[in-house]
From TrEMBL:
Keyword Cytoplasm on entry: no
Keywords of this entry: Glycosidase, Hydrolase
GO annotation, biological process: carbohydrate metabolic process
Gene Ontology MF terms: hydrolase activity, hydrolyzing O-glycosyl compounds
Name of this protein: Chitinase
Top-level division of the source organism's lineage: Bacteria
Transmembrane segments: none
Species: Mucilaginibacter rubeus
Length: 409
């Protein structure tokens, strides 16, 4: 995941790296005057989970690898949804060297989720779950901490607001990672940038959610000219998985902070339960989950929900079996959602995150047959596979980056 420039990167943060990044020095830019705080402070949303008293559950989903709809497949034993907020991880901040501006970028998987909003976004919202889009850098020098002027921050805030409106999202989550400040001649983090950005975005989205993943240079630049980030955002949460650490965000109360953070696929259930108990005992309003897989993990999640709400977790979905295509050989890079049996045109495949002339490997369930075609509508050169194939360049003829339509039986 770390080798592809234009793909969101996995959140593999550690306490060590967190300490290093938070201590990164910054060259201060000339500061324009920030407008005085007009009192446009976001109303702090209810801190109770959906339909049940207790902390809100916030869940990041790596949509490169997993289906965000799975957030809606978990309820408490009494029927309430386990998760309150689902976060699409992640869109990128790219840098246009021609215009010298930050540009909002969506990779193919994120594009698939957004373009098929009725399938992926509205289906969650129908269950009462809020859906946010996470924003982070992309190794091009642009990030939330180095906008050189208020006008530059305003411009990017407008791009974010437009995306929220276009795709019917409930808000934006900020993550100050992978910017590589200084690349392409960009500036280093400055004191005004993040405050400018959240102020502009709050003015554009007075009723939407804005959250901050407490990490990176932005975490030490939360106040400027009398305006605090905490007066503009709704929530902030700890970024180091498997730990308990209260984000220091002036302006946010305990009800809007999440000190506990877990990686569902790597944090032990005992640690996850302990962190949940601390959250409740200390009256904090958020519990952060990351890395929800497509598989059923309700037993693990019950260790958390029992501590948070005194109720176990129930999985209401169906374990998905199907074919998955990968962008790179050896099952690397971006992966599609699981694709069930059927005959698929390119347009139909795109709903699963498939990209034309892109696939390099495929995983196939035992007993299934996949016929891949070079052209749309099951035409052109074809290849028939009955088992996992790790490298399309080994097929005859070469099938790498040429598949357009498929038949799965």
């Amino acid at each position: 995941m770390r080798t592809n420039l234009n793909l969101p990167l996995t959140k593999t943060l550690t306490a060590l790296f967190g300490a290093v990044v938070l201590l990164t020095s910054a060259c201060k830019k000339e500061k324009a005057a920030l407008p005085t705080d007009t009192g446009n402070t976001p109303s702090k949303l209810s801190t109770n989970a959906i339909g049940v008293a207790g902390p809100k559950g916030v869940c990041y989903v790596e949509v490169n690898n997993n289906d965000i709809r799975n957030v809606g497949n978990y309820t408490l034993s009494t029927g309430e949804q386990l998760f309150d907020i689902a976060i699409i991880f992640a869109a990128n901040i790219n840098y246009d060297t021609g215009t010298q501006k930050a540009v909002l970028y969506f990779n193919p998987q994120v594009t698939n989720v957004l373009n098929n909003k009725a399938t992926y976004i509205q289906s969650l919202q129908a269950k009462g779950i809020k859906v946010l889009l996470s924003i982070l850098g992309n190794h091009q020098g642009a990030g939330i901490s180095n906008f050189p002027s208020q006008a530059a921050a305003n411009d990017f805030a407008q791009q974010l607001s437009n995306a929220v409106t276009t795709y019917g999202l409930d808000g934006i989550d900020f993550d100050d990672e992978y910017a590589d400040y200084g690349t392409n001649g960009t500036g280093q983090p400055n004191d005004s940038s993040f405050v400018y950005l959240v102020t502009a975005l709050r003015n554009l989205m007075p009723t939407k959610i804005i959250s901050f993943y407490f990490y990176g240079p932005a975490a030490s630049r939360l106040s400027y000219n009398g305006v605090t980030v905490g007066s503009k955002v709704n929530y902030s949460w700890n970024a180091i998985y498997g730990t308990y650490s209260v984000p220091n965000v002036p302006g946010l109360t305990a009800a809007n902070l999440g000190p506990a953070a877990i990686d569902i696929q790597s944090t032990s259930s005992s640690t996850a339960a302990s962190l949940a108990t601390q959250t409740v005992n200390n009256n904090y309003g958020i519990y952060l989950y990351y890395n929800l897989p497509n598989s059923d993990v309700h037993t693990y999640l019950s260790s958390v929900s029992n501590a948070l709400y005194g109720k176990s977790t129930v999985y209401t979905g169906t374990s998905t079996t199907g074919v998955t295509f990968y962008q790179d050989i050896n099952y690397g890079g971006t992966v599609t959602s699981t694709i069930p049996k059927g005959t698929y045109t390119l347009a139909q495949l795109q709903a699963y995150g498939f990209v034309d002339n892109w696939a390099s490997s495929v995983k196939i369930p035992t007993g299934w047959t996949v016929t891949m075609y070079a052209n749309d509508n099951s035409t052109g050169t074809s290849w028939t596979r009955t088992s996992n194939t790790s490298n399309f360049t080994t097929l005859s003829p070469n099938a790498n980056d040429v598949v357009t339509s498929v038949k799965i039986q």
